[in-house]
Amino acid sequence: MIALADCNNFYASCERVFNPGLIGQPVVVLSNNDGCVISRSEEAKKLGIKMAVPAYQIEKLIIKNQVKVFSSNYALYGDLSNRVMNTLAGFTPSLEIYSIDESFLDFSFLPPPQAADYARQIRRTLLKNIGIPVSIGIGPTKTLAKVANKIAKKQGTDGVFVFETAAATAEYLQKLMVDEVWGIGRQHAAWLHANKIHTAYDFSQAPAHWVKKHLSVTGLRTKDELCGISCIDLEEFQSRKKTICTSRSFGQPQSQLEPLTEAVATFTMKCAEKLRHQHSAATELMVFILTNPFRSELPQYSPSRVIRLPVATNDSLELVKHATAALKAIYREGYLFKKAGVIVMGLIPENEVQLNLFSSSGTPQQRRLMETIDRLNRHYGSDTIQLAAQGTKRKWKLRQERLSPRYTTNWKEILVINVGNEKAPDGDNPQPPRPRTETPES
Ligand SMILES: [Mg+2]
């Protein structure tokens, strides 16, 4: 058996962990620059707030219902995610982290009748130790575990659901639209409907050769998985990314080279850190800046430049040097830039880098310097050590007017408990007024 543990309304739940005044209240979390709703508590869902709706469109609803609104706090969500995943890892010999709030767990060591109780124990542990509610779906395959998880999330269950028999599975699949099956995209779903295949059950019964012909071997795998034949293995080790991108829209449009340089240097530092984390080196780097295409009354200019690096590298200093040079080459005065980004490409394993006689990057000293920077930033909070090129003014930084503290990753923002006569923080005042100088991880 395979279990899928998925945190409920993850970002909204994270906001509640250190702010219990929010329990029972409608909570929403907004995307970068406080744009759209990306996470909703159950209470917010009941008010009819839809996923991805722009915040300004629900302003009245927010005020009328006293909805608590937060900017996304990825430092907090990332750290709580790590804690959830580490706890889950203690319950299974093999775990696949699928996303920031979802993991597949190998349950094959358990006799099937014990699976549900074991999952309930996991739920209780996560709730007690971390404060995050999860739903757990269990089935003979990953695809069925995904379906089981959907059922576990519905009201009336205790957050755990197991597909115990083939007959019970078939009954549920008859009620599930094929669009909702993991791995069936919108186009394939539309095509299946046109061919009279409407439910997950219909799809599971379709002839194998027909599925393979029209939906390729991937579609066939999904069909087999729905029939209880496991075809998609747990991937314990996430494969290395082929490209890494860090980009942001600015809180305010920028026309000057200096803030753009600071932004590009900062994004490059993030890319370099991610490269080192997965032990890769980049052979190419791309820098882009964009004006706002929706402001057609303003002059438009959205250039990019790809640089082939002389030596593949994951050295921050080397990458920032090339990225800022590329930016300087494409920058023109007289435009309002809305967004910038850096992409590192052509990634190779760092131990396969061919050193160049004239390059200082990749030397043992350079590598030790990068390791030290990573260690300090991990320990004391990201951006503790930064390059002068990243600047200190951060004019370009995200709009995050409703950001909660990074309770778990920054000493200055640790939870404060007032005792005695002082008023304790409550749900109406979810953002202690602490100055912030940094942007979250992408
Ligand atoms: Mg979730």
Describe the structure.
The protein is α+β, with helices and mostly antiparallel strands and 442 residues long. It is built from 13 helices and 13 strands. It has helices at 10-17, 42-46, 59-64, 74-89, 115-129, 142-153, 166-175, 186-194, 200-205, 208-226, 257-277, 316-330, 364-380; strands at residues 2-7, 27-30, 37-40, 68-71, 95-99, 102-106, 134-139, 160-162, 244-254, 280-291, 304-313, 337-345, 348-349. The model is unreliable at 422-442 (pLDDT under 50). Magnesium ion binds next to strand 1.
- Number of continuous helical runs: 13
- End-to-end distance: 34 Å
Which oligomerization state do the chains in this entry correspond to? single chain
Describe the main β-sheet briefly: 5 strands, mixed
Task: Indicate the mean pLDDT.
Answer: 87
Question: Helices and strands, in N-to-C order?
Answer: EHEEHHEHEEHEHEHHHHEHEEHEEH
CATH topology of the largest domain: Alpha-Beta Plaits
